[in-house]
Amino acid sequence: MTALDQTLPHFHAIIPAGGVGSRLWPLSRAEAPKFLHDLTGSGHTLLRDTWNRLQPLTGDDAIMVVTGRAHRVAVLEQLPELAEANVVLESEPKDSSAAIGLAAAILHRRDPDVVVGSFAADHVISDAARFRAVVAEAVEVARAGYITTIGIAPTEAAVGFGYIKTGETLVVDGAPTAHLVDRFVEKPDLATATGYVESGDYFWNAGMFIARADVLLAQLAETRPGLHHGLMRIAEAWDTDERDDVVDATWPLLEKIAIDYSVAEPAADKGRLAVVRGDFPWDDVGDFSSLAKLLSGGRVGDLAILGEGARVLADSSSGVVVSQSQRLISLIGVSDIVVVDTPDALLVTTRENAQRVKAVVDAIKQAGRNDLL
Amino acid sequence: MTALDQTLPHFHAIIPAGGVGSRLWPLSRAEAPKFLHDLTGSGHTLLRDTWNRLQPLTGDDAIMVVTGRAHRVAVLEQLPELAEANVVLESEPKDSSAAIGLAAAILHRRDPDVVVGSFAADHVISDAARFRAVVAEAVEVARAGYITTIGIAPTEAAVGFGYIKTGETLVVDGAPTAHLVDRFVEKPDLATATGYVESGDYFWNAGMFIARADVLLAQLAETRPGLHHGLMRIAEAWDTDERDDVVDATWPLLEKIAIDYSVAEPAADKGRLAVVRGDFPWDDVGDFSSLAKLLSGGRVGDLAILGEGARVLADSSSGVVVSQSQRLISLIGVSDIVVVDTPDALLVTTRENAQRVKAVVDAIKQAGRNDLL
């Protein structure tokens, strides 16, 4: 273990484990969302990989998981080390401001000096040591009072991610890459993305936020006072007998809003948002096309294959096959294809059309076939 | 019923029901070969459609089916009218000369004046009345002593069929389109096929042969005396107690050869082969690409769908989907695709690559996975 892998005092990770991952249907389902799948062929679910990546910085006792009630058992099965006190169950999804805000508020009551870092349960990061070094740097910037994000150094002109434009340099001890964030930009077109990458002033927005809990909550109080108030009420009751009553009365009323809009963008406007450079391979595995890129093992020629015991016969084909059945899958002369074979649903599309999978999910929803979602 | 739909005296149809249809894997299997499938969405198997098409010319008692022992039950289930005397079971496949030759020899012993007509169990013909009129014409030519084939008037420059070049006009009563056959040609390239179709001198070879049984057998005796001898021995014993013994002793020794080579081509060379014009829609459904063309019902946009209770969601896709499972099949943005979904095997290819399906079957054979064939 290197020096960087020692636990960081007063640092507590938050893993929001929500979101089905509609663009990964029919692999991802309501019952088995993206974070409960092994999407890289590592042998671990993305959630377990996230835990393993963070644990050297936190130990077993300083990682909190926020997830839906329906996923409690599956999450604990993946993370047997996870303490009951670090499980926050949502009765219904309320987006990231409520999930991360509640975790921050609970942790702040337990430790007023806590620095929290929020890391999605369903992203793929392949250099864990480098990741931890960058988180350690972000924690230094957070201790200096900034809400801090990790901007991913872009390796190509991706159009599937949002971007972060860096502003002036910040001088913080132990944080050589720290800058203020100038602004966030939504997914660009290819020409714009190319300009961003060439300029060197832009990072990919990976949605990771590290901040002192008090700073985070103060920003939320300023921007979304109603939501902040509700979260503080729940946090006060959390470690008491009144938890369930207060949650039942309050949670359903909370505003649904992404933390990007409630905290990050307003903080950037006020010069309170910092960014450190994340120079590790990262992907949010937003669709089956990214999956094709990420899978390195289990290839047949130019075809990436995911699935235990997958049986694939491929003749001049490329793309990705996900096999969740024991059926023989034969491909002949199909390029950049996406085949996802599950016991009750089959998807055939191309990498180019991978983003359109969500439309199928919407069609199934409209048809009332929730058993397939 | 028109005059043409009256039964033809001394005419006996032979339906060779063999051949798995490898290019239609994984729909066609050893256990459920092509002729036992409904490939047009008609609600009938191809075998049943073949029977229905011929029956008005023959009645129930003048159609003989030659098939493998393994398919006896399935064939009788499809054709409950089929008399035991009209079932010829092969202990092992011996190609079309043996199958048709044996049927002809048995029928010749029962009726020396019989005219036999051989019609594959797994072709698709959509104008049955026109088909019967053409068969009636061919029977007239056969009665005049010619081995007669039905040449299909080509509707496009197909490269997937063999062609028949017509020779001089034949004058036969009741057979206005009769010509001698000049020669047979193998599947041509596109330029050659285009020339053939433009010339008007070529037909598609649909492998239908109509002849007096004595003429057919005499031709076989001339070209393949050993095979002829074996078939005559079996035919002599067929309607006696010795059938099984003689079959067991003789059948395994018979030469495997297509009737095109043992009878049709040699007869053409000697000016004994005639052709009448088949101006009805015909297809041998050689692969999934032809299937896509043939399926008229059950379409979702540009997608042809085959399979009872098929559930298909298609977004800007074209091609053909065959569904033999109850799974939901979703296609997004795939053109000229072929998806064949069965309980234990899935095939994804394109119409352009449909002929290459046989290579997959060969690979499975080599892998010793006969359960999938």
Offer a quick outline of the entry:
Chain A has 373 residues and is α/β, with parallel strands linked by helices. Chain A has eleven helices and 18 strands.
Description:
Two copies of one chain form a homodimer. With 373 residues, chain A is α/β, with parallel strands linked by helices. Chain A contains eleven helices and 18 strands. Chain A has two domains: 3-283, Spore Coat Polysaccharide Biosynthesis Protein SpsA, Chain A, CATH 3.90.550.10; 288-372, no CATH class. Helix content of chain A is 33%, strand content 26%. Chain A has a five-stranded mixed beta barrel, surrounded by four helices. A five-stranded mixed beta sheet of chain A has the order 12-13-15-17-18, covered by helices on one side. Chain A has a two-stranded antiparallel sheet with strand order 5-11. Chain A is globular. The model of chain A has no long low-confidence stretch (mean pLDDT 94).
What tags apply to this protein structure?
homodimer; 373 residues; alpha/beta; Spore Coat Polysaccharide Biosynthesis Protein SpsA, Chain A; 2 domains; five-stranded mixed sheet; 11 helices; 18 strands
List the topology elements.
The structure is a homodimer of 373-residue chains.
Chain A: E1 11-17, H1 46-58, E2 63-68, H2 72-78, E3 87-90, H3 95-110, E4 115-118, E5 124-125, H4 128-143, E6 147-152, E7 163-169, E8 179-185, H5 190-199, E9 202-212, H6 213-223, H7 225-238, H8 243-250, H9 259-269, E10 273-278, E11 282-283, H10 288-294, E12 299-300, E13 302-306, E14 311-315, E15 318-323, E16 328-332, E17 337-341, E18 345-350, H11 357-366
Parallel strand pairs in A: 1-2, 1-4, 2-3, 6-10, 13-15, 14-16, 15-17
Antiparallel strand pairs in A: 4-9, 5-11, 6-9, 7-8, 7-9, 8-10, 12-13, 17-18
